[in-house]
Design brief:
Elements (H helix, E strand, L loop, with lengths): L7 E7 L3 E11 L3 H6 L3 E8 L1 H14 L6 E6 L2 H17 L2 E4 L10 E2 L20
Parallel strand pairs: 1-3
Antiparallel strand pairs: 1-2, 2-4, 3-5, 5-6
Pfam families: SPOC (PF07744)
Organism: Chroicocephalus maculipennis (Brown-hooded gull)
Protein name: PHF3 protein
């Protein structure tokens, strides 16, 4: 990540679980609308099953009318790292992804997908079109 510039900095907040400062780094897709549309704080409104997310992503890809972009979130400080790990553990232990509750203009849906350092990127998101 040292060679990349972050495209967004703000909070991720899931009440009663964690709130922390985070930076988003580009991985794949077009980020123009994302950087314009993301609020100062992403509110995590709930959980969703991976199966539901991947069914939806496949429909989006098949339609050809919408774009999918992938970012990597990285906590800013050591204290943020602790909260980040709590949120990661919360989703991982429940085998669920997070869903942003913010109403955004251009970004229709935003999912937080917990991937461990040894996890493979879900095949639905590759090949990457960006810095990877």
């Amino acid at each position: 990540l040292a060679r990349l510039n972050f495209i967004w900095k703000g909070f991720i907040n899931m009440p009663s679980v964690a709130k922390f400062v985070i930076k988003a780094y580009p991985v794949s897709g077009s980020f123009e609308y994302l950087t314009e549309d993301l609020p100062d704080s992403i509110q995590v409104g709930g959980r969703i099953s991976p199966h539901t997310v991947w069914e939806y992503v496949e429909k989006i890809k098949a339609s050809g009318t919408k774009e999918i972009c992938v970012v990597r979130f990285t906590p800013v400080t050591e204290e943020d790292q602790i909260s980040y790990a709590l949120l990661f553990a919360y989703f991982s232990s429940r085998k669920r992804y997070g869903v942003a509750a913010n109403n955004m203009k251009q970004v229709k849906d935003l999912y937080l997908i917990p991937l461990g350092s040894s996890d493979k990127v879900p095949h639905h998101l590759v090949p990457f079109d960006g810095p990877g």
